Amino acid sequence: MIWLAHSSVATIVEHNGRFLMVEERDSDRLVFNQPAGHLDEGETLFHAAVRETLEETGWEVELTHFLGLYHYPAPNGVTYIRHSFAARALRHHANRELDTPIVAAHWLTAAEIMAPNFAARSPIVRRSLQDYLEGHRYPLSLVYHHAP
Fold first, then answer.
1. What are the counts of helices (DSSP H) followed by strands (DSSP E) for the chain?
2. Collapsing DSSP states into helix, strand and coil, what is residue 89?
3. I need a labelling partner for 116 at 20 to 30 A (CA). Which of 31, 53, 145, 148 fits?
């Protein structure tokens, strides 16, 4: 058996002092996460982040910064490598059907997300928001995509 880490992307989208979050079903509980998902074969990290945000929230976004790389060995035995980006909200498609298992998209305050009783999907949710709030921002040019 070959071990592989799961490469994922996530976006932190701030608008009017609130952050775009998804409420999703994780087994038998509801949890919150930034719009996030897996990198599909043949796509860039940038494309994956924009696509996942649209599919999970109905929001078109424009990436503005790279926030960081997060390593998370999850309790389910999977190791996730998350590439997090900051993005600007451009346009909402209110009638767009959201991906399964997304229940809803919400605009929440940082205080709500950082609250001790907040049902974050993983510790990376709060950590990446904390990094964003502390001003961690890197140019998108930090990420190199090789064109075959």
1. 3, 7
2. strand
3. 53
Q: Report angle CA 10, 22, 8 to the nearest 5 degrees.
A: 25
What phi and psi, each to the nearest 5 degrees, are found at residue 50? -65, -45
22-32 confidence digits (pLDDT tens)? 999 988 899 99
Element at 125 (helix H, strand E)? helix 123-133
Which pair of structure tokens corresponds to residue 129?
A: 């928001």
Q: Which residue has the tokens 């998370």?
A: 72
Q: pLDDT tier at 8 (50, 70, 90 boundaries)?
A: very high
**Residue 142 one-letter amino acid:** L
Residue ranges and CATH numbers for the domains of the chain are 6-142 (3.90.79.10)
Pick from 54, 39, 33: which is nearest to 9 by CA?
A: 39
Residues 6+ apart with CB under 8 A from 30: 23, 24, 103, 119
